[in-house]
Description:
Blueprint: E1 2-8, H1 16-20, H2 24-27, E2 30-36, H3 40-48, E3 54-57, H4 59-67, E4 72-79, E5 84-87, H5 94-97, H6 100-105, E6 111-114, H7 120-132, E7 137-140, H8 144-152, E8 158-161, H9 163-173, E9 176-179, H10 181-184, E10 191-196, H11 203-222, H12 224-235, H13 240-249, H14 259-275, H15 284-287, H16 291-296
Parallel strand pairs: 1-2, 1-3, 6-7, 6-8
Antiparallel strand pairs: 3-10, 4-10, 5-8, 5-9
Helix pairs in contact: 3-4, 4-14, 7-14, 8-9, 9-13, 11-12, 12-13
Amino acid sequence: MSTLTIGHLSTVYHTSFILEGTDWLRNMGIDARWKLFASGPDIVKAFEGEEIDIGYIGLPPVIIGITRGVPLKCIAGGHVEGTVMLAQKEYKGLGELGDIAAVLAQFKGKAIGTPPRGSIHDVIARDLIARLGYDIEVRNYPWADFVLDALVDRKIPAAMGTPPLVVAARRFCGARIIIPPGRLWPNNPSYGIVAREELLREEDAILRFLEAHERACNFIRERPAEAARIVARLTGIVDEGFVLEAYRISPKYCAALSPEYIESTMGFVEALKGLGYISRSVSKDEIFDTRFIEKTHPERPHYGM
């Protein structure tokens, strides 16, 4: 039995909830110890402190960590296009205004909420605002729940975050999607499976974990109602309908490291440099080790299926 300490987020469409809520990993000889974190940057800090072996995380915090000397490698994908822009119901969306610049112009002199600095949502928001040259504040919150609270309390007019944030904001304050996930940053690596470099010596344990992860990605894509029941039962906080709604907003689940996933990730390197989050370039080989997922997932990626 291999023991793996796994850092994860509260994002209900990650396979962490399926694997924690079933006996799949134990049946494959893995004793998983799960640790919940507030954000991707917090998971990188846990890697830095050698608290975890594997993490579920968006790729921008990983890139930042690598430049700080944290020994990390992305060994699998999980989902793409997991950042959505939502706003209070009085604001107009992309379908009404026709272009992203016009949508963002509604928030000049105002604030957009996101999870912490360095999270994928924060980077997408700051990069877009910088490219447009608009005077819009990005207001960071340590937990996604605090972004929701700020929307409900009308402290912010808009936010960028995950599909579960959208579902919750719809329910609690009538917020709506104003820029869908595929239009903000196509193929963006909303999360991948990241491992500490020392773990890469344990190929058998990694392959067993990735086999279960791929099975869970397929399960979410092919049997979403059953997957939602597992997540709802495990969390005890959200219902099956909530999980299903989150699944449907951006249904692009797969464990592969597709060329598009990798290319989109490399685009974040330049964005992070431009924003001053990193001071040097990072190569593809510094970020990714594709050996393991190529064995587990040799067929074509399923992100677009």
